[in-house]
Structure formats: C-alpha cells, structure tokens
C-alpha cells in the first residue's frame, strides 16, 4: 500500500502534545475511528573503531528499526543504502556483532501514538521522543487498497490536505525511486529513518517554542 510519512511542525504557542491533540481531533471530526496504538523505534549503530582501519575511512551508520505493524520483523537500514528485512532475532545478532557495530544508545528515537482508520486510509499520528523529551510529531498515512505507490499519490494528498492543511507534504522520495514497482514495508521504514534523522539534526540547533 502507498504510504506517506511526514513531520508536522508544532503549532505556534502550543506544545507537541497539544498539537497532536489538534490533529487527532480533526481526524475524529472527519469520522476516523481509533484502532489501537503503534510504535516505530530506531537505534543507531556505528562501525566500531577497531574495524575502520588506518586509511582514514569514516565509519558507517546503520539503523536498526522496529514497527509494531510488523511485529515479527526487524529492519536494518544503511544511510543511502539497502534496507534489510530480518526476523526479530536480528537484535540478538547485533549484540553478538558488538565488535563491529556499536550502539549509540543516546541516539535511540521512537514515535508512538494512535492508529486511526478512515474508509480505506490508515492514519498514525505519533509523538517522536528521544530520551525523556518529545522532539516532534510524525504523521503516517497509508492508502490500503493500492500496491503501486505512484497510482495513489493524488488520493493520499487530497486526504492529507483535509486534516493537515498547508502542512501536507510533497511526494516522498521513495515514490520517485519506485516508478511503477510495488510499494513495500521497507519503503515506509526508509521514510521514518529520514524523518528521525531530520528531527535529530533539528535538535542540534536550539529551537524556540519546543518545551
């Protein structure tokens, strides 16, 4: 199914939580129904210093991600690189590989929130947290019947405008790369990885209005 993952800015004078409530209220007014909760998390691993060698190579970052929508899978993504879909035991393997990949624990980031169903759309509005604090808001919108992502972009965009207004995102880069091929869960995880990295970078600059 075609799916868009995007960030919604915190409303002026509001907190992250209040902005999430504004969005979910709009969805409920449209007639969307709550269907449980969701969580997407991401841990960063960097290449261990001992494996880099002396040629001044830079270490690679790898992101190990989970999505409650796919409880039996674990996703390993390299920046600008492939996405490996493994079973849930992959986490145990990463512990065994600690000589090669080291977990940057301070960088763990996740998005959690409520799932909503509206006709053929599944919407997940999440609070993105790093450590104890809320850092941003993610909105995932999936059009369930469609398997070719580009075929449903106009429909997705029209629906997103109904509750996201001028914060409706542009077409995700993974759509452009897919052309007419089938959309997969890995494409959603790539979008979450990009969103989380964007939020991480924003945190390096002091932002007014985020409490």
Automatic annotation (TrEMBL):
<dbReference type="GO" id="GO:0016592">
    <property type="term" value="C:mediator complex"/>
</dbReference>
<keyword id="KW-0010">Activator</keyword>
<keyword id="KW-0804">Transcription</keyword>
<comment type="subunit">
    <text>Component of the Mediator complex.</text>
</comment>
<keyword id="KW-0539">Nucleus</keyword>
<dbReference type="GO" id="GO:0003713">
    <property type="term" value="F:transcription coactivator activity"/>
</dbReference>
<dbReference type="Pfam" id="PF08612">
    <property type="entry name" value="Med20"/>
</dbReference>
<dbReference type="InterPro" id="IPR013921">
    <property type="entry name" value="Mediator_Med20"/>
</dbReference>
<protein>
    <recommendedName>
        <fullName>Mediator of RNA polymerase II transcription subunit 20</fullName>
    </recommendedName>
</protein>
<comment type="similarity">
    <text>Belongs to the Mediator complex subunit 20 family.</text>
</comment>
<keyword id="KW-0805">Transcription regulation</keyword>
<dbReference type="GO" id="GO:0006357">
    <property type="term" value="P:regulation of transcription by RNA polymerase II"/>
</dbReference>
<comment type="function">
    <text>Component of the Mediator complex, a coactivator involved in the regulated transcription of nearly all RNA polymerase II-dependent genes. Mediator functions as a bridge to convey information from gene-specific regulatory proteins to the basal RNA polymerase II transcription machinery. Mediator is recruited to promoters by direct interactions with regulatory proteins and serves as a scaffold for the assembly of a functional preinitiation complex with RNA polymerase II and the general transcription factors.</text>
</comment>
């Amino acid at each position: 199914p075609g799916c868009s993952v995007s960030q919604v800015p915190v409303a002026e004078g509001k907190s992250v939580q209040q902005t999430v409530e504004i969005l979910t209220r709009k969805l409920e007014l449209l007639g969307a129904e709550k269907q449980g909760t969701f969580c997407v998390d991401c841990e960063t691993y960097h290449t261990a210093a001992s494996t880099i060698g002396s040629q001044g190579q830079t270490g690679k970052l790898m992101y190990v991600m989970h999505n409650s929508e796919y409880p039996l899978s674990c996703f390993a993504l390299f920046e600008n690189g492939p996405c490996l879909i493994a079973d849930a035991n992959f986490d145990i393997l990463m512990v065994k590989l600690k000589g090669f990949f080291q977990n940057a624990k301070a960088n763990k980031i996740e998005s959690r929130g409520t799932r909503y169903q509206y006709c053929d759309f599944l919407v997940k509005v999440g609070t993105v947290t790093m450590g104890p604090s809320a850092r941003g808001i993610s909105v995932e919108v999936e059009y369930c019947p469609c398997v070719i992502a580009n075929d449903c972009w106009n429909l997705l965009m029209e629906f997103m405008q109904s509750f996201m207004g001028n914060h409706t995102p542009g077409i995700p880069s993974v759509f452009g790369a897919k052309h007419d091929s089938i959309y997969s869960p890995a494409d959603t995880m790539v979008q979450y990885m990009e969103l989380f990295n964007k939020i991480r970078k924003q945190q390096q600059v002091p932002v007014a209005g985020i409490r």
